[in-house]
């Protein structure tokens, strides 16, 4: 039982990333009808916003510390971050320590701006083109962004630690009645799950309870009629593209302590996220979120030792196997609209 609970937690952690990226993909497909293969790159760019913020906060100048000597007895030269110089050692050190959450302040405008630039500069020209054309151009854009990141940050993963207060693990088992030490789980993975739940809840609340969101949902259902009412639905859809990019970027920012950022991490998540979207149902926001968590948990269960002994390699193919079964039995996905992907 403790192994199952642990794998459930792992699955919710994986599912959080899948659900956030798939949510952004579905927002774009549902509003603009665009199959955006560059969306995984948004996740990657968000992760490197966290890397950039940490580097900015660690910018330092060299000083001589007369209280410290080298082996020859000469005063040591030390690097003092500007943040510590401006705000003091304690507050400056805390700001550097919390660089990952602080990077959200950088990621939001960067991702929204990048989303606007992508949509207005490139993707708007492919609205009426076949999905194959959309896939080719957005996949090419993803490769360009990937190579830009590789050029500026290198090919190796860049460790980006969580705040020291959350660097350890919690004895989760004691919270639910298990003996001490039965279920030890990292703090930051739990925080990532809670963060994902807040973002997902925020997106759904925005679409459900705001006038802007209601108009967007109406435009998703009948774009022409909303346009005839004198509403500039294209502008609202452009804003939704920026929001979708921001959702993926925030997912990437908070994921950096779990998986050190590298230039190909966007591609690693992209394929899985598209599978999640297809399983949940193209254009279905609840389906994308539900399928993200479902497939994350199933993938985690498939990695149990006794499961792999019984079905070797099942942990590598379980997501694709579920996708095949769903597409054969329900082509529009678990919660997809009738007629979508059923032609």
UniProtKB/TrEMBL annotation:
Belongs to the binding-protein-dependent transport system permease family. LivHM subfamily. It is found in: Cell membrane. InterPro entries: ABC_transp_permease, BCAA_transport_permease. Its main location: membrane. Keywords: Amino-acid transport, Cell membrane, Membrane, Transmembrane, Transmembrane helix, Transport. CDD domains: TM_PBP1_LivH_like (cd06582). Pfam families: BPD_transp_2. The keyword S-adenosyl-L-methionine does not apply. This is Branched-chain amino acid ABC transporter permease. Coiled coil: none annotated. It comes from Acidimangrovimonas pyrenivorans. The chain crosses the membrane at residues 16-35, 95-114, 165-185, 192-216, 236-257, 269-298, 310-328. It is a multi-pass membrane protein. The keyword Cell membrane applies. It comes from the Bacteria.
């Amino acid at each position: 039982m403790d192994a199952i609970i642990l794998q459930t937690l792992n699955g919710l952690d994986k599912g959080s990333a899948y659900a956030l990226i798939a949510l952004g993909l579905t927002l774009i497909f549902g509003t603009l009808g665009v199959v955006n293969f560059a969306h995984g790159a948004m996740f990657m760019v968000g992760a490197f916003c966290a890397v950039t913020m940490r580097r900015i906060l660690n910018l330092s100048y060299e000083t001589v510390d007369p209280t410290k000597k080298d082996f020859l007895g000469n005063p040591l030269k030390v690097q003092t971050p500007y943040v510590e110089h401006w705000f003091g050692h304690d507050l400056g050190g805390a700001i550097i320590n919390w660089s990952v959450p602080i990077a959200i302040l950088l990621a939001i405008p960067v991702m929204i701006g990048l989303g606007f630039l992508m949509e207005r500069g490139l993707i708007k020209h492919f609205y009426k083109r076949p999905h194959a054309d959309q896939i080719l151009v957005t996949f090419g854009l993803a490769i360009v962004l990937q190579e830009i990141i590789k050029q500026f940050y290198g090919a190796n993963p860049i460790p980006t630690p969580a705040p020291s207060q959350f660097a350890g693990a919690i004895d989760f088992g004691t919270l639910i009645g298990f003996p001490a030490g039965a279920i030890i789980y990292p703090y930051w993975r739990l925080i990532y799950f809670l963060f994902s739940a807040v973002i997902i809840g925020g997106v759904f609340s925005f679409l459900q309870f705001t006038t802007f969101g209601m108009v967007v949902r109406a435009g998703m259902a009948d774009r022409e009629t909303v346009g005839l009412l004198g509403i500039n639905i294209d502008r609202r859809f452009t804003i939704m593209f920026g929001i979708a990019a921001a959702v993926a970027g925030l997912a990437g920012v908070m994921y950096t302590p779990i998986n050190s950022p590298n230039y190909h991490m966007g591609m690693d998540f992209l394929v899985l996220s598209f599978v999640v979207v297809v399983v949940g149902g193209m254009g279905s926001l609840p389906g994308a979120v539900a399928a993200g968590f479902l497939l994350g948990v199933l993938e985690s269960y498939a990695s149990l030792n006794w499961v792999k002994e019984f079905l070797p390699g099942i942990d590598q193919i379980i997501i694709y196997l579920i996708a095949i079964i769903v597409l054969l039995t329900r082509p529009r996905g678990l919660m997809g609209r009738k007629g979508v992907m059923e032609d």
